[in-house]
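Researcher: For the annotation table, I need structure tokens for Cysteine desulfurase. Please keep the output clean. Sequence:
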Amino acid sequence: MTTGRPILHGASSGSATGFSGAELAALRADFPLLSRTVRDGRPLVYLDSGATAQKPGVVLDAEREFYERHNAAVHRGAHQLAEEATEAFEGARTTVARFLGADEGEIVFTRNGTEGLNLLAYGFSNAAAPGALDGVDPEWADRLGLGPGDEVVVTEMEHHANLVPWQELCRRTGATLRWIGVTDDGYLEDPATVVGERTKVVSVTHVSNVLGTLNDLTPVIAAARGVGALVFVDACQSAPHLDITGLTAPDSGVDALVLTGHKTLGPSGIGVLWARRALLEALPPFLTGGSMIEIVRMEGSTWAPPPQKFEAGVPMTAQAVGLAAALDYLTDLGLDRVHAHDQSLVRHTLDALAQRPWVRVLGPTDPADRVGAVAFVVDGVHPHDVGQVLDDAGVAVRTGHHCAWPLHRRLRVPASTRASFSVYTTPEEIDAFTAALDRVPEIFGVAS
């Protein structure tokens, strides 16, 4: 069971414990791909879950069963299959709402987190069109109006998905993009120095996909609320590891968040935007067409109420069903235990890398301030070369800028190597990773 505690200032697994060796072995058996070998028969050590997580059998079975028994277009047709498909799709929405501690009328299905953030950004652009805000409360019309002199605030550690849409919004509207800086050790600088009277939107990542930093959102929200700005949260990296229901609580100060299915043990091609009902009612749609309409005439159309207002076309029903199965799987494991397991892996990794002085870890050194990932550099060796050495040993990691170029520039490194974890990651895999990493000094002549 999840605790429902707010995850704003940080997270603590409290009295929860991770998974025993026997529990991990049983859990890993749920993930078919983990049993395969790579690179001439080497056991796969998958440490790239921050890019995409593997899928348990219940997710694969849920998608397969939908296609084999219930496949039809939802919200269309009066036959039994259409009724079953619609029930499955809306049942998935209910499951997502339960996972987030939210109302199902506030859950919009998207293709991924990136689309959810673009939906928000384009909503502001579309609000400027003549008639787009007809009938909208004047206070909301003012909040959605963006132009020269207004500001949008992000952070320097954003994934491109939570940076580029806001850059483009500012380019289209003439607003100014500002950002909260990052300290040398991977924390956010004081948001009050950036958020000001002209700020309309503050959009921030909950967990850095590079540094693993679990951001303290409390001062960010306080600064935004102090000037009446809307607060959006990219929860793509936190949702697989934490109970994030505190972010959707009525008094959290957060107006919207996004998550993506493929990082949360679910299918690719499905994501979620949660937003407060008042925002969804006021925001103009991002995509238009079938399913999201109320009345259509040749002269014009009106929109269905949220969330259907933002779900144009035939939805990704099988993927939604698979995502629901994934979220139920995480819930059944217990998100407190999931987080405790993650913390033990982060601690184990940081301790191991600290014994290798030729490795420079990026970001916080306190495991309690991290979630799910450890990125590092070996000075004098390109991360791609480090990744190749690891891959030769069957260890899969991510190398490059991880869709976070500005953060790497801030840290004065061209790229990094990242090991990232999930519920199925074991301490033994961390040991295999560090053992393979020990070949780097030998191969490249780095002083060890």
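Researcher: And a one-line annotation?
Model: Residues 60-331 form a domain with the Aspartate Aminotransferase; domain 2 fold (CATH 3.40.640.10).
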